[in-house]
Design a protein that fits this description.
This protein has 152 residues and is mostly helical. The protein has one domain: ABC transporter involved in vitamin B12 uptake, BtuC (Orthogonal Bundle), CATH 1.10.3470.10. The protein has helices at residues 9-36, 40-45, 50-72, 78-90, 94-119, 127-146. The two termini are 33 Å apart.
Amino acid sequence: MGSLGGASWQKIALAAPLILPVLLLSPMLARGLNMLALGEASALHAGVEVEQIKTLTILCVAAATGAAVAVAGGIGFIGIVVPHLLRLAVGPDHRFLLPNAALLGAILLVGADIIARLVVMPAELPIGIVTAVLGAPVFLYILLRSRGILDL
């Protein structure tokens, strides 16, 4: 279970060289990702270097996720629920989706940490429990909606 209990500026300084370039590079990947959402053939015909975009995106995601997990540990549902909720709210355009997902993910994580620290004071509830309580129903709703079982 992940935690922000051991967070320090030293750990942030170690993770920042992997996370910051990804945050800066993500707007440049947005056009290619938008085209890839239409299919690889369509993206290729639109002039997108499909394999290059896919490789760069995988490397960026792996670097940023690896650095974040190394600092805070695995905290479930943030990376699954936030982008799906934002896609419903702001649409599929990656120009808006990527920066907002990073921002809303951070806000949700800090909010979950605050709740985890306050609920069972003076002890600390694992953040993963809080994010699971918030994220599991949302994930279930998205899953059922995508399968056509739920239509709200």
